[in-house]
Amino acid sequence: MNWIMNFVKDERGVETIEFAVAGLTVAGGAAASLTAIKDDVQAKGAAIITAVTVDAG
Known about the structure:
Structural class: mainly alpha
Distance between the termini: 82 Å
Number of helices: 2
Shape: rod-shaped
Number of strands: 0
Largest sheet: none
Oligomer: single chain
Strand content: under 5%
Low-confidence stretches: none
């Protein structure tokens, strides 16, 4: 029982876990925003190609 209490009170490594969680949060946000940007860029690219193709006609 005593080792359980020592384990619960032990704070070694907590900062590392906090940095890992923060890093994962930032990485997840970056991935989500880049996915949204990718879709917009693809749509704009398709619009530009269509405009150039029609004008070159």
